[in-house]
Amino acid sequence: MALYRLILFFFVLSLLVPSLDASEGDTDPIYKACLDECEKSGCVGERCFQHCKFSSDGKPIDGPWYLQEPLYQKWKQWDCRSDCQYHCMLAREEQREKLGDKPVKYHGKWPFRRVYGIQEPVAVAFSALSLAMQFHGWLSFFILLNYKLPLRPNKRTYYEYTGLWHIYGILAMNFWLWSAVFHSRDVELTEKLDYSSAVALVGFGLILTILRVFNVRDEASRVMVAAPLIAIVTTHILYLNFYKLDYGLNMKVCTAMGVAQLVIWGVWTVVTSHPSRWKVWLFIVVDSLAVLFEIYDFPPYRGFVDAHAVRHAACIPITYICWSFVRDDAEFRTSTLLKKMK
Predict the structure, then answer these.
(1) CA distance between the termini of the chain
(2) How many angstroms from the chain centroid is the CA of residue 59?
(3) Which whole-number Å values give the CA distances from 222 to 109, 218, 229, 337, in the listed order?
(4) 176-194: per-residue pLDDT in tens?
(5) Which of 90, 97, 145, 280 has minimal CB crowding within 10 Å?
(6) Whole-model pTM?
(7) 182 and 53 in one domain?
(8) Does residue 222 belong to any structural domain of this protein?
(9) HSE on the CB side for 338, CA within 13 Å?
(10) Is 103 contained in some domain?
(11) 166, 146, 165: which is closest to 156 by C-alpha?
């Protein structure tokens, strides 16, 4: 009961988190003055940007800005305004640090320091590691089923949830790919791809959870379970992409589906005799603790490691635990079915 209360507390708390369009740093008069001056002069202090030089008709003097950029930054699309925002933010934060003030958010984000044009390098690194861990987990699952466990006479696996876990693995790898891209450069397109991928993954995770926990094996029954959830997830993705990119609403939808999964798996571990149920408990506990970092949301240490990056780091062992259970489940179900057939 204590675990369920903790999960419920996280869910209720997430519903109370407001979604703000402006941040404290955006309204800072010193920051705004720096931004206005930078867009006119193309300089922040002694640092000037070639692509901020415009003629009287508003066209760049030396050609398009992206032709002036170093090769490694061209694909990042750092334009005059984004560079002015970044360097004015750094200059203002240096002033605030000297005065003993704490960091504040600018345009909804903490003041991160770029590395080779990458906006949040630590989050990108952890996303890439999670992607690698997902690929390793999915590949080991594939090898186990097709080369280590016995197959049916028609070469199909005995495990009834093979296809579902393959889809889950593909969606998970897709999510971590776009997570790395989004944290590398936050623009509208990468943000939509990141949010949409997250919703698709969490939504399918809920479908998979219901089908596995309740042992739904009949195809017609699976369709009846999956169809309404797919409709909800699809509608939400269309809403985010074509109507309003609402961060607050998206957080609530993902949290609701995520909490539902944890509760269902938690109840299953109590009533089942599965030999690897302890791994599900471990997954639930670690994932619940990792959510604390998202709620706390502390500023980035030295401009690099924030709460979200730590959350991504926690997903690495969580992914390992998840796929470890899936492999055990495949072995357990295959063994059970073979015993029944004898």
Answers:
(1) 41
(2) 38
(3) 41, 6, 11, 20
(4) 999 999 999 888 899 999 9
(5) 97
(6) 0.84
(7) no
(8) yes
(9) 14
(10) no
(11) 146
